[in-house]
Design the sequence.
C-alpha cells in the first residue's frame, strides 16, 4: 500500500448493549503521523470504539483494518503484536521496581521472553530502556522506584512502556485523566512530539477542548454512538452540530473546567 494510505481504517463499526446502540455504523481512518482526537459527551461511545479496536470487545458488525489487513475479531494480544499499542496503569506489583526496570520488563515482554523471574531484567535491555526514557524526558529518574514518582511522571513512564512494543498506532483513552491542567498539557505536548518525530499515529480522547484544539491533527466527534462530525480543528470548533452537542451537555468550548 502507498505511504500515505490509511494506517487504520474503521468501517461501519457497530456495537449494542441490550437496547443501547453504543456505537452505530461508525467509520473513520487514521494515517501514519496523525494525532486524531475522538471527542464527544459522556456515554457517546468513545471507550466502546477503543475497546473494539484493541480487541477487548467483540463488535456486532463492521470492519477494522490495520495496514490493509483485517484485525477485527483478533484477540487483544495479536492486535498488540501487529502494532496497536495502548497505555496501561503500572500494576501495584511493578510500582516497587525502578523506572528503568519497568521499561526493561516491557522490552522483555515485547521480545517474547519469559518474565516471571524479573531480577535479570536489571541486566537486559538497560540501554534500550534508557533510550526510551530519554524520549519521554524521564532518563534522570531511571533508578527511582515508580512508587516514588509524581503522578504526571508515572504517566510518562506508562507512555514509555507502551512505546517499548514499537507500536504503529497508540490508543489513548483519556490519557490525562486525573491530571492537573499544566501536567495535562505537558503530557499531550510530549505525545504530539513523539507523533511528529517518529511517524507514530495516535487516537486519543481528552476532555479539555483547549488541549484537543491545540494538539489534534484532526478531530472526530461522536454523539450517542453516531459520528456527527469529522475535520480539522477550525472546522470542528465552528461546527453547529458539535456546538449544540456540547452546549446541550452544559459544556462550552470557551470555559473548560479542568
Ligand atoms: P464514552 O467512553 O464516550 O463515555 P462508552 O463507550 O463508555 O462512552 O459508553 C457508550 C454507551 O454504552 C453508554 O450508554 C454506556 O452506558 C454503554 N455501555 C458501555 N459499556 C457497556 C457495558 N459493558 N454494558 C452495558 N452498557 C455499556
Ligand atoms: Mg470513555
Sequence:
Amino acid at each position: 500500500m502507498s505511504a500515505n494510505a490509511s494506517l487504520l481504517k474503521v468501517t461501519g463499526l457497530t456495537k449494542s448493549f441490550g437496547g443501547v446502540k453504543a456505537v452505530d455504523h461508525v467509520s473513520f481512518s487514521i494515517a501514519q503521523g496523525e494525532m486524531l482526537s475522538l471527542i464527544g459527551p459522556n456515554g457517546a461511545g468513545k471507550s466502546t470504539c477503543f475497546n473494539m479496536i484493541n480487541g477487548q470487545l467483540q463488535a456486532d458488525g463492521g470492519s477494522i483494518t490495520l495496514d490493509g489487513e483485517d484485525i477485527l475479531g483478533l484477540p487483544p494480544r495479536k492486535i498488540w503484536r501487529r502494532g496497536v499499542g495502548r497505555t496501561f496503569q503500572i500494576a501495584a506489583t511493578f510500582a516497587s521496581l525502578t523506572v528503568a526496570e519497568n521499561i526493561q520488563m516491557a522490552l522483555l515482554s515485547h521480545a517474547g521472553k519469559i518474565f516471571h523471574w524479573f531480577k535479570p531484567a536489571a541486566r537486559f535491555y538497560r540501554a534500550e530502556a534508557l533510550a526510551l526514557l530519554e524520549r519521554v524526558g524521564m532518563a534522570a529518574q531511571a533508578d527511582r522506584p515508580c512508587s516514588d514518582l509524581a503522578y504526571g511522571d508515572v504517566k510518562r513512564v506508562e507512555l514509555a512502556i507502551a512505546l517499548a512494543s514499537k507500536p504503529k498506532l497508540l490508543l489513548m483513552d483519556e490519557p490525562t485523566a486525573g491530571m492537573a491542567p499544566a501536567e495535562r498539557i505537558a503530557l499531550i505536548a510530549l505525545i504530539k512530539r513523539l507523533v511528529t518525530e517518529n511517524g507514530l499515529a495516535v487516537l486519543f480522547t481528552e476532555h479539555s477542548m483547549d488541549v484537543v484544539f491545540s494538539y489534534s491533527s484532526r478531530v472526530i466527534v461522536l454523539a450517542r454512538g453516531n459520528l456527527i462530525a469529522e475535520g480539522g480543528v477550525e472546522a470542528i470548533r465552528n461546527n453547529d452540530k458539535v456546538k449544540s452537542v456540547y452546549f446541550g451537555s452544559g459544556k462550552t468550548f470557551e470555559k473548560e473546567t479542568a
Q: What stands out?
A: The two ends are 41 Å apart (CA to CA). Residues 17, 20, 22, 40, 42-48 surround adenosine-5'-diphosphate (ligand 1) (CB under 6 Å). The chain has a mean pLDDT of 90. Strands lie at 6-17, 20-31, 35-39, 61-66, 69-70, 84-86, 169-172, 201-204, 218-223, 226-231.
